[in-house]
Amino acid sequence: MSPTALALADPPDETLDAYPPIDPPEGARVSEADYWAHYYEHENGYEWNNGILEVKPVSDVLTLQVYQWLLALLRFYLGTHHNARFTTLDFGFRLTLPGKVAIRKPDLGLVRHDNAVPLEDLDRSYRGVFDLCVEALSDSRPAEIKRDTEQKRQEYEAAGVGEYFILHHEPHWQLFYRRGPFGRYAPIPRDDGMIRSGVLPGFQFRLSDLLRQPEPEALIEDPVYAPFVLPRWQADRAAHAAERIARQQAELRVELAEQSARQERAEKEALLAELARLRAAAQDGPH
Questions:
Q1: What is the CATH number for 211?
Q2: Across all residues in the chain, what is the average pLDDT?
Q3: Are 119 and 249 in a shared domain?
Q4: What global pTM score does this model have?
């Protein structure tokens, strides 16, 4: 058989080069289409920065505990106010920025219900711009610190993210920004050692509590958190306490009434006994 016939009978597999590498290194160049098709849901947690793959760094345990405590506090808030939805970890959004496009996956992204682009039940990425982004900082390399504290801050600011929180177990790396009227980020005021969100009215926390991480039992007794931490439970508890007090007061009134009745009977019996004695004495006296 001629070489030509062999070629026709067994053509080369041209599909082998149609798929990008399964596990490319950080810094590899891929198209946005390939990113969405092959790397958006990749186990390496890739983000995409204008054609470059970036691996999301891992935070240490102490920083993750700070993040998880704030996440739990946010769940309490949303369970009370029902004014927003949030995503975590591998849920990304596309940022159209001056001179470039990026796809970021904040550790927490929040969408208010009045956002022009709602977060839908079946979404796997967010088509709009988050109202609040939270990143748990990794400090294992200077480049990772710079990515969250500078690069992403600039990107989120330019994209229109209303507030940006950077969490860490060291207070000097705890950074909180709010977008001002001219579109620029400014540090959120730390009045009385507290952070008060403008994106989520009424959501607030003490900076010191990011490290103390008080339990829910303590939060419901704290005036800072009581307005949005299990208020129904608090109301039920207050109602049960009021019922218990009312029951105790009713029982006390009954007991006092019974005690008064017993005393009245005893006094009456004593009076009757005294009258009987006087009659007897009068009958036994001189005739």
A1: 3.90.1570.10
A2: 87
A3: no
A4: 0.76
